[in-house]
Amino acid sequence: MSTMLETPGLDTLIAARIRRERESRGWSIAELAAASGVSRAMISKVERAEASPTASLLGRLSGAFHLTVSTLLARAEADAGPSRIARAAAQPLWTDPATGYRRRAVSPPGAEPELVEVELPPGARVAYTADSMTFLRGHVVWVLSGRLVVEEGAEESLLATGDCLAFDLVAPKGHAYRNPSASRPCRYLVALHRR
Questions:
Q1: 94-107 residue pLDDT tens
Q2: How far apart (Å, rounded) are the C-alpha atoms in residues 178 and 189?
Q3: What domain count does the chain have?
């Protein structure tokens, strides 16, 4: 059973942050839709906090902004007040409504590397496009408990507790995280370095 708690109001903060990121670039919703592959209708719903974005959708939007999902979430949380210390009780936690995937931004906003703790429910799979990785220079996954299958294009790597995988970001491919267990969640830590 997870001890992670949902950050209150994070969906509203995410909605406002996505709108700010788009407007700060001078983009219309149509331009963000073209850059991300997300429909204009869905972007409008997300920006109005009428729809909770999935992990995949956040990956496409953050990739269009050249941000990691954790940076986007950390900026959303920082809108409520910045700090150099990321206290455990205040670390932004987001849950993918489609899969139950839970993502906690562990490091303070802007820290390098960005550290993200993830809990992937039994049987769940979360996929990201190659575009969501193009602005990263490093990406490492360390399994804290359970087992994790990392799919990179046609390649699969099975990781067990304590195993660590460094991604090849010279030529990033679409990738996915999958929990092969039918009964046990998988927890892992992701470290991300921007270019």
A1: 899 889 999 998 98
A2: 14
A3: 1
